[in-house]
User: What shape does this take?
Amino acid sequence: MGVLMSRKQQVEKVQKCSVVVSAFKEGLKDRPAPAAVAHTEEVIENGDESAEGTHQANKDHTEQKEKDSKPGSLPNQQASASSIEEHKANQEAWGRLRDGKGVEPEDLKKAHQLTPPTFVRPKREVNDDQPVDVSLGQTEQPVNDEMCEVCEVWTADDLFPCGTCTRVFHDGCLREMGYLSTEALQEMRETAHTTTGWSCYYCDNVNLLLTEEEMYSLMETFKQCKIIPESCLVSDELLQYRHFVTKQLFERDLTDEEEEEVLAQFAALDPEKKGQIEWSDFLYHESLSVLQKFRTENSLVRILTAKERDRARAVFQSLDQDKDGIITAGEARRAQTSWFHKINKESQSCNVSISHVGPISESSPASSSSERSRDKAMENDNRPVTWDNFLRESAIYILAARPNSSAMHIRLPL
Assistant: This one.
C-alpha cells in the first residue's frame, strides 16, 4: 500500500504540473483543474488499470503540447512571427536600395527600414599628383540626375538638387532616412534651387574625402588628445589640442602668433558666437587640414566636381576683363575669399550672380582688423596668375566651401 500511495503521489505531481504548464501557455493560469486530478485518483485506485491510466494521461499531455506548438497558436509565437515579418520587410527594403530598384516615398513609413548606406572611403591613385588639364573656355554644364538618389522615383519639381554633385532628392526621403533635421530640411528647401546651393549628405561631409589611412591617423590624434567625438569644443580645448599636435609634429610649443591664429580659427568656426564649436565643424576643419598638409594641389583639383569647376571658371572669367587668361594675385585672393561668401536668407534668390567676388564682409566671423589690412595689401599685388595656377591654389578653398554650415572651415594664410 505504501508503494501504491507513493506512486499515486508521483502521478498526482506530474499531472498537476502538466495542467499548470498548459494553463500558463493558454494564458489561463488561474483556472482550477480538479477534474484531471480526480480522474487520476480513480485510475490509480482501480489497481491493474493504473499503468494504462498513466499512459493515457501522458498521451493527452503530449497531444496538447503538439497542439500548442503549432505556429500562431500562442501570443509569444504570434509576436515572433510578427518580428520575422518585420525583419523580412527590412531585408527587402535593403535589397531594393542595394539593387537600385528604389521604393515609393509614401512607402517609407519606418525610419529604421532605410538606414544610411555604408560610405566607402576613396583610395589614392597612382596618377593623383599628376597635372590635370581643365580647359578654361570649355564649360562642362553637368546635368542633374532625373530620379531621387534614395527612392529612384521621378517627380519633377519636387526634387531638390545638390549644388556640388548631380544627385537629387525628395525632402520626404531625406526626412525618412534621418539625414536632416526639420530646420535643415527647411534650409534645403530655401537654398537648393538658388545659386547659393545646398550640399547633399555625401558632399557636405568633407571628412569622407579622407582615405582610410588618413582617417585612422586623425582618429589616433583625437584619442591621444582625449577629444570626445560628437561633443562641442570650447576655445581652451582647441588651444590644448593644437599645443599637443604641434608638440607631436615639431617637438615645440605654439608661439604667441600661432595661438592668436588658433583663436581666430575658433572664431571662424563659431559664427554665431556661442562660445563653442560644433563637432562637425571641428571635424571638417581638421579633415581639410589633413588634405592641405598631405595632398598635392593637383590631387585636390581631381576631387573637384564638374559643378565646382564650372563655378571656378565663371569666377576667373569675370575677373579676366581683357580675356588674356591672366588675372592678378590680388584678384585671385579675393576670389578665394568669395568661396566662403554666405548669402543671407533674406537675399537668397535665383538671380544672385554666380560670379560674385569681393572681400569678405566685416561682420563675418573670419574678419578681423589684421585680415582687413591684409586684404587691402593684397589688392595691390599685381603678380600674374594663370587659370591653371588659380584652379590649383583655389581647390582647397572650394572644397572647404562645401559644408552647409555657416562656419569658415579653413582660413586663408596670413
